[in-house]
Specification:
Blueprint: H1 4-26, H2 28-37, H3 41-72, H4 76-93, H5 102-124, H6 127-130, H7 136-163, H8 170-188, H9 198-218, H10 220-249, H11 255-275, H12 277-283, H13 285-305, H14 309-335, H15 343-372, H16 376-393
Helix pairs in contact: 1-7, 1-8, 2-3, 2-10, 3-5, 3-9, 3-10, 3-15, 4-5, 4-8, 5-15, 7-8, 7-11, 7-12, 7-14, 9-15, 10-14, 10-15, 10-16, 11-14, 12-13, 13-14, 13-16, 15-16
């Protein structure tokens, strides 16, 4: 591969945005939101689930359209930069949110999460451009692996702020981290190639995106893969979003323990994504996804049954291994279904499937845990999503 600078820049963007995923979306800020900003875990669960669901709905509705615009208007890099900057600014503003400011925090989380997840539509679309078909699995795995390394570093920095009683400084830290390590992608990824006025190109992009959505759904293996992905990604997203809150509220993890727990998850996820990157190309991406889903099923059952947080460390390690491999292999598997030159459109559809799943999962988790008075039934309900996803994926013919 001759474009090593582009590949490294692409992977560094995963390193950059993972600071947001770890500190803001998964570990430190969710618990801070529930216990400090909302001042009530039950209300915090409900508002946190609503914020994530609403932001994912925004991305789900816009990603197919924007994916088409990025191709036909030649605006992929500009949109990647714009979405990233909006996320950076929104996260930085969280430093000004105090206890009881639930609505303000809700709004900033919705904007930040929608911008972050929306940027991934354009980021993912670069994979077929920078990596040949026989190297996409390993490049995808390298990206996720470096991303988990970014999570580890950001969490260690957040832990420093927590121990010094200034946890709120973690939010601007994430902003700076995200921006600085995104700069190589902004400069070195393939440049935009404008193909006319943005207005006309946007209309063409909308038209073509709707066409490719219908086209994709008419293709049997793509339709089945998207349904399977929609189901099991729902389970993965829901567990990621509520894992820190579950460990804190149900199992009694302290803030420092949560950081170390997630560090363990990131290390094992990094190991899983890197270790299975080459096997993804050799064994086939589908086989790696199936193996990962079997691991997730085991993780879900164990998380429901465990009472002692000591055993939860082992469950977290298993989850990390499955997390790294299922994301990287799913992206590589879908890339094999995409016609040349249609990457932005098809990854828009891919994002649509992933983000719509995250609309339902977090809201459903919050509803079930609130109704049952316990988070355990909500955790067990995720098992159904993994089992159904695995069953449907088994019928998908790999590319």
């Amino acid at each position: 591969m001759n474009n090593r600078r582009q590949i490294l820049s692409w992977c560094l963007y995963d390193f950059a945005n993972s600071s947001y995923s770890a500190v803001i979306a998964a570990v430190v800020f969710p618990v801070y939101f529930v216990k400090v900003i909302a001042e009530d875990p039950a209300a915090g669960d409900l508002w946190w689930g609503r914020a994530i669901s609403l932001s994912m709905l925004m991305v789900a509705l816009t990603s197919p359209v924007l994916g088409g615009i990025s191709d036909y208007a030649g605006m992929r890099k500009r949109l990647l930069v714009a979405y990233s900057v909006v996320c950076v600014v929104s996260v930085g503003l969280l430093a000004f949110v105090d206890s009881g400011m639930v609505i303000e925090a809700f709004f900033l989380v919705v904007v930040a999460n929608a911008a972050m997840e929306g940027a991934l539509v354009f980021y993912n679309a670069y994979l077929p451009d920078i990596a040949p078909r026989d190297h996409r699995g390993r490049v995808s795995g390298w990206g996720f692996g470096l991303g988990y390394a970014g999570s580890v570093l950001a969490l260690l920095m957040a832990l420093f702020f927590m121990k010094n009683g200034v946890v709120r400084l973690s939010w601007p830290m994430v902003s700076v981290f995200f921006l600085v390590f995104s700069l190589p992608a902004f400069f070195f990824l393939p440049p935009d190639r404008p193909s006319g006025s943005p207005g006309r190109a946007a209309l063409e992009g909308v038209k073509k995106t709707m066409e490719v959505l219908l086209e994709a759904l008419r293709i049997k293996r793509v339709r089945r893969f998207l349904l399977a992905y929609w189901l099991y990604k729902d389970g993965v997203n829901t567990i990621i979003i509520f894992s820190g809150i579950y460990a804190s509220v149900t199992l009694g993890f302290t803030g420092a323990e949560l950081v170390f727990l997630y560090l363990l998850v990131q290390v094992s996820a990094m190991a899983g994504s890197v270790a299975l990157s080459v096997p993804t190309d050799r064994w086939g991406a589908k086989n790696v996804v199936v193996l990962s889903l079997l691991l997730w099923i085991a993780v879900t059952v164990c998380a429901y049954l465990v009472d002692d947080k000591r055993f939860f460390w082992g469950i977290a390690t298993m989850a990390g291994l499955g997390l790294g491999s299922v994301q990287a292999a799913s992206r590589a598997l879908f890339a094999g279904f995409i016609p040349h030159g249609r990457e932005g459109e098809y990854f828009g559809v891919y994002a649509f499937a992933g983000k719509t799943s995250a609309v339902i999962g977090p809201a459903l988790f919050g509803l079930i845990s609130s109704a049952a008075g316990s988070q355990r039934p909500a955790v067990l309900s995720v098992l159904v999503l993994f089992v159904l996803g695995l069953a449907i994926l088994s019928s998908v013919e790999a590319g």
